[in-house]
Design a protein that fits this description.
The chain is α/β, with parallel strands linked by helices. The protein contains 13 helices and 13 strands. About 45% of the residues lie in helices and about 15% in strands. The site of nicotinamide-adenine-dinucleotide has 26 residues, from helix 2 and helix 6.
Length: about 400
């Protein structure tokens, strides 16, 4: 199979489609909600309130946006999820809601497992039991967003493949391995035997294991780009440590990629399996080898790019912690399957991903003193500009974004 990727037709596909996104108030979920609105989809969001302050969901105006349904509820609440699916009747479901921070998972493993594992069980169950008036399933395509950290990490120098052992080390990574297994079980035990009129599985499900995502609008704690942004903010406020970024693991290598890379891959996979059940599978989504850098190099690139374009000057220092909880040292993904199946390739090298992240951060910093609506518009415009660039650079620009 080769579904020859074309992002123009991917966006077109979502026009008028009913789509439910869990975790849409988060960093990736906000970008995804925006892309779906851009494509003309009928969106329902199902999430707790935005997890950070500030949050992209508010900053770009999505929270006040009346063009989609927002349900503020918990994925641990099966009844609420069932009700949401029975009301929205989504044909397509993207599952992003999670407790996604490794260090927080050490502090609160129980909540991490409850959200990431039982949240997935509940959503699978709500997908399985959402039926139309004729008793047929309503969901055609379901994508569970997991992570590059689902694999047992052997600290080897080649990329993990989809067939490698699922056995994340810390509670976050491991809960996502479990979320994968839950999804596999629901497919084997239920979805595959719920046939459509052509004898194909009605509900198609895939998981996507993305690398570490960077981009404008991430304000999470214990993530490196948000740490850079916080250093800029504290320099503006003239605090003592302002402008200096403390890097805990400068030598750990990660598959960093711009947030638009996995999001377009998710849109692509969900569309492909909607149209042909043979595309349901487990996919890695990460950068090419030359763009897998260590955290120190990533921060240097961010500082250089920022210092060339804006004030205040920022720099970083190595602050390795002796008693830090275990985190993998070396992590890379083999994305041959996604490439082979869809003709997919990353659009941006790491330098471009950083360039766009710096650009977003500058716009956001400059817009901070504006009235709320003007600020949201400036940020929304910046995000639309980045989407246009992303599509253009790979030659997938459609009329929609010209
Ligand atoms: N950011 C990355 O680098 C990265 C990399 C790989 C995979 N992922 C995965 O992508 C998804 C989104 O990550 P993110 O970085 O946008 O995270 P985020 O923390 O910004 O957003 C998490 C979202 O989940 C929601 N949520 C949390 N607990 C919930 C609950 N109990 N019920 C309902 N909603 C709940 C939050 O309200 C928010 O909308 C997660 O599944 C994460 O594991 C992220």
């Amino acid at each position: 199979m080769n579904n020859c990727m074309n992002y123009e037709s991917v966006l077109d596909f979502y026009k008028e489609k009913s789509v439910l996104v869990t975790g849409n108030t988060g960093f990736k979920g906000s970008w995804l909600t925006m892309l779906l609105l851009h494509a003309g989809a009928k969106v329902t969001g199902y999430s707790l309130h935005a997890p950070t302050q500030p949050a992209l969901f508010q900053e770009c105006g999505l929270e006040a946006d009346g063009r989609f349904e927002q349900i503020y509820a918990d994925v641990r609440d099966l009844d609420a999820l069932k009700q949401a699916l029975n009301t929205a009747k989504p044909e397509i479901v993207f599952h992003l809601a999670a407790q996604p921070i490794v260090r927080d998972s050490y502090k609160d493993p129980v909540n991490t497992y409850a959200t990431n594992v039982m949240g997935t069980v509940n959503l699978c169950e709500a997908v399985r039991t959402a039926l139309d008036e004729n008793g047929a399933p309503v969901v055609r395509s379901f994508l569970n967003v997991t992570t590059d950290k689902v694999y047992r990490n052997n600290e080897w120098s080649w990329g993990y493949r989809e067939t490698d052992v699922l056995d994340g080390f810390d509670p976050y990574s491991n809960s996502k391995s479990c979320s994968e297994l839950v999804t596999h079980s629901y497919r084997n035990a239920f979805f595959d035997s719920m046939k459509d009129s052509a004898g194909e599985p009605f509900i198609r499900v895939s998981t996507a294991r993305a690398g570490n995502v960077i981009g404008g609008g991430d304000f999470s704690n214990d993530r490196i780009i948000p740490d850079c942004v916080r250093a800029i903010m504290s320099a503006c406020e003239n605090t003592e440590s302002g402008g200096r970024i403390a890097v805990r693991n400068p030598y750990s290598t990660r598959p960093f990629e711009h947030v638009l890379e996995p999001l377009f891959a998710y849109l692509l996979i969900a569309k492909a399996q909607y149209e042909d059940s043979r595309y349901q599978d487990y996919y890695n989504v990460g950068p090419d080898d030359q763009d897998c850098v260590n955290t120190g190099d990533l921060v240097s690139l961010f500082c250089d790019t920022w210092n060339r374009k804006a004030d205040p000057v920022i720099s970083w220092e190595n602050r390795a912690e002796a008693d830090a909880p275990h985190e993998a040292g070396f992590l890379k993904l083999d994305c041959s399957k996604l490439k082979q199946t869809f003709g997919w390739k990353p659009a941006w090298h790491i330098s471009e991903a950083i360039e766009q992240t710096v650009s977003w951060t500058r716009v956001w910093m400059e817009a901070r003193s504006m009235p709320e609506r003007e600020r949201a518009k400036a940020i929304w415009d910046e995000m639309e500009k980045e989407i246009r660039l992303f599509l253009r650079e790979d030659g997938y620009l459609g009329d929609r974004v010209s």
